[in-house]
Each structure stands twice: as C-alpha cells, then as structure tokens.
Design goal:
By secondary structure, the chain is α/β, with parallel strands linked by helices. The chain is built from five helices and ten strands; from the N terminus they run βββαβαβαβββαβαβ. The protein is globular and about 50 Å long.
C-alpha cells in the first residue's frame, strides 16, 4: 500500500489530503485568497502522522505565482526529509477530472482566474486528455477560443455569460479529489506551470 500526501495551493484555495493508494484517509480544504504560506504547513501537520507519506503530489499551476511557489517549496522539502517520491500535476487537469466525476465523461473547457484580468484556459476531451496548451487570455479572447459547450472552473460562469450560450459549473481544485486524476496527468518534472510570462524582465530580455 502506498501513502500519498497531496498539496494543492496554486489557486485561491489551499488543500491537503492523505491517501492510501486510491482511498482518502484525511484531508482539508480552505478558500483563502491569500495567506497560503501561513496555512499550508499547519494543515499538513494536522494530517495523520503529520502527513508523512511515501509519495508527495503537488499542484504545479497555473494559478497564483506565490501559491505555486509555496506548494512546491513545501513538497520538495518534505520529499527530501522523508526520502519520498515527488510528482506534480496540472491544476486545470484536476478541475477537469472533478467535473467529469460530477457530470460524466464529456468534452469540456476549464476557465480559471489568471493575472492582470486574464483567464487561464484549457480544453479537454471526453477522456480527460488535454487538447492543447494552457493559454492566458483576456476575457474576450477567451470567449473566442473556448471550444466546448461545457465550461468549468472559477471563471466558468463569467465566460458562459459573455458567450451567451453553453453550460457553466463553478469549481475550484480540491486535493481530496486527487484520486480522480488520470495517471498520465502525473509528472516527475515538478517545475511550475505559471501559464503566462513574468510581469517584468531584465533590460535586454524579451517578456
């Protein structure tokens, strides 16, 4: 039996969960907005055996620059301390998996809050496979890009309202639903998926 600690702090939410194989043992979910750095470690410490696990899975983004870094720093430190396997997963893939579990297999688009008034967008097929890379778009461009009638995520209702058609389901990522993720969504490459370029660059560098 493999124990997995899941850390998801890449968005306005902060959640942790402990699984034995695919069975949820314990978990906590909070809508924070800010303060992930202060809340994440106490949430992990409140888990059974203080969250100690054979594997750590961490959300890579896209989402909040600060939230992504906080989650990755905690995951890497614990993996080193516990000699645990470290894997990552895309935030929008988890949201898509949660939606399929609730509504059944079907094509869908995920729309979540990005930076500077933009939205993160990604399309998924009925099997949960991504149909293209994440894009960070202004709302009007997001409406032009969206491919599916069903839109899920924190900006789903706003997108469908702008488009004037389709179905929306407001949804945020939850580490306690990690078991819904397809295995191919996991990666050993735990670099952050910011979804957009940096807000500033050094002189002489392109953004």
């Amino acid at each position: 039996m493999r124990r997995t600690l899941v850390i998801d702090s890449a968005t306005d939410t902060c959640s942790v969960a402990v699984f034995d194989d695919a069975t949820l043992i314990d978990g906590e979910w909070q809508l924070l907005g800010r303060g992930h750095a202060e809340r994440l470690v106490p949430m992990i410490a409140a888990m059974p055996e203080r969250g100690r696990a054979d594997r750590i899975a961490v959300a890579l983004g896209p989402g909040s620059f600060t939230g992504i870094r906080v989650g990755l720093a905690a995951a890497k430190a614990l993996a080193l301390a516990w000699n645990a396997e470290l894997v990552g997963y895309p935030t929008l893939a988890l949201i898509a998996s949660q939606a399929r579990a609730e509504l059944g297999p079907q094509e869908l688009s995920v729309a979540t809050t990005g930076g500077h008034g933009e939205w993160f967008m990604e399309d998924f097929d009925a099997g949960g496979r991504s149909r293209g890379p994440v894009a960070s778009l202004k709302p009007d461009k997001a409406v032009e890009r969206v491919r599916s009638k069903l839109v899920v995520g924190s900006q789903a209702e706003a997108l469908v309202a702008r488009r004037g058609s389709g179905r929306s389901l407001s949804m945020l990522p939850d580490a306690r639903r990690f078991d819904l993720l397809p295995e191919e969504s996991l990666t050993r490459d735990v670099r952050p998926l910011y979804g957009r370029g940096p807000d500033a660059s050094l002189p002489g560098q392109s953004r």
